[in-house]
Amino acid sequence: MPPPDSKSGAVLALGADSRSARAAVVLVHGRGASAEAIAGLTRRLPQGDIAYLAPGAPGGVWYPHRFLTPRAENEPALSRALGQVADVVSGLVADGVPQERIGLVGFSQGACLVLEHARHAPGKYGFVAGLSGAMIGPAGEVRETVDLRGTPVLIACAEDDAHIPREYVEATALWFRACGAAVTHLTFAGDHHGVFPEEVAWLQDHVATLARS
């Protein structure tokens, strides 16, 4: 996958070339942010034979309404956004990076997308990290389980985050456990809507594991 430019709607490529990388990490930004913004996280993560790819949402918004509204209210933008994430993953696989050595990281709206991607395209991933996010859809929505084959999954959020109700985060962690994922569920005191040091440490460990696998 050659490195495209970083304009909104394109994919920002950092680190190793995906055609020769040992592993890859896909980073998905939050509402009103950009590929460049979340790509700053790579400065705190292992380098070496790791390809980092950050898709950008047109206008900085993946879908128009909150993640907890009925899915139909966020269409067709939601399906387009999920398609963008799926295209990046399939492009990496085409470049020779196995899915089990691909990590998915998302923050806020991006966290909701990577968690939802794992639901619709299950299997073994290097890891999936939802930072301040939860699965998309209203409370009580019934979701059939899928087989995530022991994929390490991080579900983390502040307990009083105004954007992500705690019960949605807890329900997301339970669903991923039911799907056979190895879930780490972290809850932080306060209402900070951002990336926490404990999340970075988890990512550092799991990216380093990918690089060694």
Describe the structure.
The chain is α/β, with parallel strands linked by helices and 213 residues long. The protein has one domain (11-212): 3-Layer(aba) Sandwich (Rossmann fold), CATH 3.40.50. Helix content is 30%, strand content 20%. It has 5 helices and 7 strands. Strands 1-3-2-4-5-6-7 form a 7-stranded mixed beta sheet, with helices on both faces. Helix 2 (77-94) packs across helix 3. The protein is globular, with a radius of gyration of 16 Å. The two termini are 21 Å apart.
Could you give a quick summary of the protein structure above?
This protein is an alpha/beta fold and 213 residues long. The protein contains five helices and seven strands; from the N terminus they run E-E-H-E-H-E-H-E-E-H-E-H.
Total number of helices:
5
- What are the segments in which pLDDT stays under 50 over at least 5 consecutive residues? 1-8
CATH topology: Rossmann fold
Q: What's the order of the H and E elements?
A: EEHEHEHEEHEH
Termini, distance in Å?
21 Å
* Strand percent estimate: 15-25%
The CATH H-level homologous superfamily: Alpha/Beta hydrolase fold, catalytic domain
What shape does the CA trace take?
Answer: globular
The CATH class assignment is: Alpha Beta
Q: Report the average pLDDT across residues.
A: 94
Radius of gyration: 16 Å
What is the total tally of β strands?
A: 7
- Secondary structure category: alpha/beta
The CATH architecture comes to 3-Layer(aba) Sandwich
Largest sheet strand order? 1-3-2-4-5-6-7
What's the number of domains?
1
In helices, the fraction of residues equals 25-40%
Question: Largest sheet at a glance?
Answer: 7 strands, mixed
